[in-house]
Structures are given as C-alpha cells and as structure tokens.
Amino acid sequence: MAEDSLNQQFAALHTHRVQTMNPVDLGVNIRQREYLVANADRSRFPKPGNKVPEFVLPDVEGGSVVLTDLLAKGPVVLVFFRFAGCPACNIALPHYERHLYPGLTARGVSLLALSPQVPEKLVEIKTRHNLSFRIASDTDNHLGKHFGIVFSPTAEAKANAEAKGSNTGETTGTGTWELPMPAVIVIGQDGIIRYADVSPDWLERTEAADILTALEPALT
To answer: What is the CATH number of the domain that holds 93?
Structure first.
C-alpha cells in the first residue's frame, strides 16, 4: 500500500488534533499558523538566483558541515525545520528519508537538514528515526535570518505555552523563542539557489517529488 503524501499526513495530524486536543490549545495553534501565513514577509524569502552565503555549522554527530565541501561533491538541498520534538518535523524528516534521500543520493546530491536547536538536543531526531542524511545546528538562526524565514510566536501563543510550563528557548537550548519556518532550498554547485519553497504554516511542507523535480535544472 502506497504511503500517504507528506501533506496528507499533516492533514491527518490536524484532524486528530481537532478530535483530541484541548479546544483552547487547538485554537491558539491554528491562529498562530494563520497569523504567520497572513503576515510573513515573502519579499525576504530566498529566491532562485540568490547566492547562498558560505557557512560552517556544527553537525549533530560532531564536527562541522561546510557548504564548500558539500558543493564540491554536487548540488545541495537544505531543509529547514523547527526542532527535534516538533510533531510535524517528526513526520517530515522520516518521510524525506524514505522518499527524497534515495533519489538525491542517486543523483549525487547532498541533503542537509537544519534547525537552530543546539546539537546535543537536536541529535535526538536523527537517532530516533535513524536518519541517513546530515543534520546540523543553524547557530543563532544565522542562515534562517539571512533567508528571512525566522519568526517569533504571537503574544497569545507565547502566553499559552508559558501557562503550560513550556519554553521554546529551553526546549531548543537557544534561550530564544525564534524558530524557522519550514523551508526547502535547492543550491546548484555554483552556490546559486535554483529553487526555494517556504511554508509559513508548518503543517504544509514541500513534497519530496516536487523537490526532485525542482532539482533537475541544478544538475545541468
């Protein structure tokens, strides 16, 4: 039996939440996502033709991930996600492991997933799902801010989280509530963006098949 698409799985997650989640918490979650969709500054999002800045980021398993080293081997696909405990991220990354990573590997393309969470906490998502691709910490949201995809929660969402004893800064180890919107960026070997897709609503993300299709121009 074929696996549901990524966004079908997110729709199922939302349906489950509607049926089981505290209505107050559900409402806050929905309004936060709606706010981001309505207010995201899309003019700052990464676009084809933009140059990606050089970066050296800590790999969650030790050592560093260097953009120039990745590009020396071929094109690169960056996947930005929120943090290791994010329910939607725990759907998306294993899905990409099954449906994106094999196709990228066959084409000589590197896949790198990025979150601002500190490495010692972020590594949990890699070990939990036995992910094959590299995961690195986008320290201080450096790249996320460059690409204009970093957001802070609304006052309502922050107050609701704090009332439940939740603190994003403690969860990520960064001391800040800032997180990246999910995003996929395809980089050619020349360091130029060929494709970019940002999802202000974190329950909507780029399908693996769309990434593989968008990758083709970067291979020529």
So the answer is: 3.40.30.10
Which residues of the chain, if any, have pLDDT below 70?
1, 220
Structure tokens at 131: 């992910």
pLDDT tens digits for range 47-67: 999 999 999 999 999 999 999
Which domain does 214 fall in, by range?
6-219
Quick one: which of 196, 193, 194 has its CA closest to 45?
Answer: 196
Provide the Cα torsion 96, 86, 51, 105; round to 10°: -20
Task: Give domain status of residue 37, yes or no.
Answer: yes
Shortest CA distance to 79 belongs to which of 51, 104, 62? 104
Secondary structure of 66-108 as H, E, C letters:
EHHHHHCCCCEEEEECCCCCCCCHHHHHHHHHHHCHHHHHHCC
> What does pLDDT average to over the chain?
95
**In angstroms, rounded to a whole number, what is the distance separating the alpha carbons of residues 139 and 115?**
8
What per-residue confidence (pLDDT) applies to 220?
A: 66
The structure's pTM equals 0.95
